[in-house]
Amino acid sequence: MSGKVPTVVAVYELVATGYERVAEFRLTAAGTITLTSARPEGCPTAQEWYTDGIPVPESREPVTVADGPAFLRAALRPRRTSYCRVVDESPDAAPPPVHREPRSGPRRGDREPRRGADR
């Protein structure tokens, strides 16, 4: 990863209608990490990371909130889950990639059959 320090990292979970923003980690001016949940019931994944840390392959110990920015970088690492997405939403972050659902029906540029072509 680059040397840029993430300051806002959002957690999205897959629900029936798509991905829903469920939690946010934020780096404070004092260098501490806060967790805010968007749902009354919270987000178990984000809460577990906040409480227990985030496992990383190169270390036997998880990265914890006490590690400050390293915790946010660990949260942004790719993981093998389809139900959860973690996005850097820092003010100066690059926009996330666009994920489009396949469309049915004709696409732009597809030609309609010419009228009378079968005569």
Structural description of this entry:
The protein is of the alpha+beta class and 119 residues long. The protein is 14% helix and 24% strand. The chain is built from two helices and four strands; from the N terminus they run βββααβ. A four-stranded antiparallel sheet has the order 3-2-1-4, covered by helices on one side. The longest helix is centred in the middle third of the chain and has 9 residues, at 44-52. The protein is globular and about 70 Å long. The N and C termini lie far apart (62 Å). The model has no long low-confidence stretch (mean pLDDT 84).
Instruction: Report strand %.
Output: 15-25%
What is the averaged pLDDT score? 84
Rg, Å, rounded? 20 Å
Helix count from the secondary structure assignment: 2
Overall shape: globular
Task: Describe the strand arrangement of the main beta sheet, using strand numbers.
Answer: 3-2-1-4
Distance between the termini: 62 Å
Strand tally, please? 4
**Class inferred from helices and paired strands:** alpha+beta
Order of helices and strands: EEEHHE
Q: Which percent bin holds the helix content?
A: 10-25%
Low-confidence stretches are none
**Biggest sheet layout:** 4 strands, antiparallel
Q: Indicate the multimeric state.
A: single chain
